[in-house]
Amino acid sequence: MATLNETHDPKLTSWVVSANHGTTDFPIQNLPFAVFRRQGSAEAWRGGVAIGDQIVDMAAAVQAGVFSGDALAPAQAAAEPTLNHLMGMGAQAASSLRKALSKALQTGSAQEAALKACLVPQADAEFTLPARIGDYTDFYTSVYHATNIGKQFRPDNPLLPNYKWVPIGYHGRSSSIGVSGQAFKRPKGQVKPPDADAPVLKPSARMDIELEMGVFVGQANELGDPVTIDQAESHIFGLVLFNDWSARDIQPWEYQPLGPFLAKNFASTISPWIVTMEALAPFRAAFSHPEGDPQPLPYLSSDANSAEGGLDIQLEACIVTPQMRDAQAAPERFTLTNYRHAYWTAAQMVTHHTVNGCNLQPGDLLGTGTLSGPTLDSACALIELTVGGKNPLKLKNGETRTWLEDGDTIILRGWCDKPGAARIGFGECVGMVLPAA
Amino acid sequence: MATLNETHDPKLTSWVVSANHGTTDFPIQNLPFAVFRRQGSAEAWRGGVAIGDQIVDMAAAVQAGVFSGDALAPAQAAAEPTLNHLMGMGAQAASSLRKALSKALQTGSAQEAALKACLVPQADAEFTLPARIGDYTDFYTSVYHATNIGKQFRPDNPLLPNYKWVPIGYHGRSSSIGVSGQAFKRPKGQVKPPDADAPVLKPSARMDIELEMGVFVGQANELGDPVTIDQAESHIFGLVLFNDWSARDIQPWEYQPLGPFLAKNFASTISPWIVTMEALAPFRAAFSHPEGDPQPLPYLSSDANSAEGGLDIQLEACIVTPQMRDAQAAPERFTLTNYRHAYWTAAQMVTHHTVNGCNLQPGDLLGTGTLSGPTLDSACALIELTVGGKNPLKLKNGETRTWLEDGDTIILRGWCDKPGAARIGFGECVGMVLPAA
């Protein structure tokens, strides 16, 4: 599964000096992909790779002849206006490109001069979706989230009997997925107060977030050909932060019997930078179900998945209210969790999704589901943090939040940090709720 | 909403004589769109229009200079390898093209010679998906289906309280949608027998069909901009037949709390020909909820929707078993229903889907849900027809079917026929179950 190579060496430094500060999300050991152009320009969208506070403009770098050999074809694909082609080339191609980028960006590289001309400051860039997302599937991999929210939707029956056997997932809406910076109108929908005879159409009064990770599919599988658990990671390109905005008053009235629909599909936001599975190799974690829980069925089990199916990724959500924005206050963190708490791994998501022959395609997105941890302060949705709206969050400036208000901005962040490895990060996933139309 | 014009005149005939037999699905009053090429060729896929037993090759027809004026741009779009562009141009553009096609194909048309050279026999053609389907949503618009199936999944609670208020829908899988002729391996999945302690992974033993219609979205709406009920039909390009294959033993174990997933996403099949909303204008039907049922909320109500929101489309499903195939027996019909039995109209599906601001895009597909009628012989899934597997279908050759067996072929057909209008049809939607891998 995860193999360390020279690109992960924590001692590596780059001639892009901002990449060498220990606090950057984008040291030379990371090298995530996005699609960008200069802010406000009419330039073509093209792929880029983050290094420190800069972006390697892949179109310019290919033009400048920086890449050759095995790295050339993936470099050309990484220069396109969507990364679907790169994703579909598979893990080996992406790895060749990573090696070439790592060499070219290293301190002392002979390509410094050529590549320096291809840098664009991140501060000057705007981003778009890194891929045409054909299908988006959301999973439900935190047993803590499933239990917390189950208590509120089904007090007598919080965790359904299938949860510990089936990596529960459902299809979501691709068209309304946007990239960090997305601002969306508060949705309207049918809401039925418990004591009312009939529902009413109104703007949601229970706007919530869900802190998730998004898994971008790489290499495709053919319709009818399941992906085994040991092959699953070779079908994953990389990970982003993902905010699955939710309207908690629309959800309970509509979701039975076929699942959430309008409570979720008005907007979902991803971070622009896709951190590859290879970059995450130093942060693999052992994976197991708690003692006493059923072991996964054989198709969902493998030694590699047990040894290192988990991912040690710290995740946080912060809020900026309009009042905080006016006061230029720093974003305030209201939850901190870790992806390793998930009950099902990314590989298990892929394998389960395809066990019936369903075909995954390059650029498809799999959400992990809300990644709430075992304690309340690591819960990843307001519905959990406020216990269904009963205990509002208290912010440092004296404001409270039960649900999101108009003008509230949510910032998701994620990072990996452990002794013996270079810290890498995901950047930010920022979204804002606008007033209803 | 629906306006009759000269293209609907039942007296119109075509110089393509096979279009003038009263039994053809494709008289000059229909003019549906597909994407095709000559069978087994390496030709480019391009759009075509059905006329009798022929196809107007739109790429050839554009090349031949058959179209001009308002019809030229939509004709060029109709010649592309997917029809998304044509769909996105809106109803007015499609209508201009329809008028031009109707004139050019009429008996006595000056364009007969030019267009004759652009015909390809349908018998020589193969078809592909007519559009890149970005998102696919399945609705649940038959109250009879919801009640029948609800009785089996939730005996105490068959029709949930939201059903008569909310046009229930959920997201489905786009990648596994195929065109008529699709053959797919029987899916494997987790199945839990009621008396077992644990689920097992096995090939589905309860393969079923769902006879639906598919609604192709035309003109897009922007994210955040709902489509009103009176505008909804201007966002619909046309209709196809749709078979939402279902694995009934996978479904009950996986579907709670987030809805059906692997029980549905291994394959779904559409008919190749998209019949436009304009072609269906003579077959509109009054629409209302039964007396005593709640009236739809105002956003789902309009005079036009009440006057003619329904569609009088006859629908049937037929089976060909391997034994029947060997005996060269005719396909055997096992259900006959009508789209006008739906509890929610196509316009209500569009308006509800977008009321929260969700954006629909050209080529998106909306399934109506299984279109079971009020009586058991008009039920549109085996799970209903066999009452959950208890009463097998008896076929004329003495075979029985509780669920589909390997090698079974299902053929869906649909047509509109009433006095004073030319009969039009949808062609066929054919799919076959192959053995599990």
From TrEMBL, chains A, B:
Pathway(s) of this molecule: Amino-acid degradation; L-phenylalanine degradation; acetoacetate and fumarate from L-phenylalanine: step 6/6
GO molecular function: fumarylacetoacetase activity
Hydrolase recorded as keyword: yes
A Pfam family of this chain: FAA_hydrolase_N
Keyword Zinc: no
Keywords attached to this entry: Calcium, Hydrolase, Magnesium, Metal-binding, Phenylalanine catabolism, Tyrosine catabolism
Gene3D superfamilies for the chain: Fumarylacetoacetase, N-terminal domain, Fumarylacetoacetase-like, C-terminal domain
Cofactor(s) required for function per UniProt: Mg(2+); Ca(2+)
Domain Fumarylacetoacetase N-terminal: residue ranges: 29-130
Enzyme Commission identifier(s): 3.7.1.2
Chain ranges of the Fumarylacetoacetase-like C-terminal domain: 139-414
Top-rank EC class of the record's enzyme: hydrolase
Origin superkingdom: Bacteria
Record-linked PANTHER family: FUMARYLACETOACETASE
Protein name listed in UniProt: fumarylacetoacetase
Gene name of this polypeptide: fahA
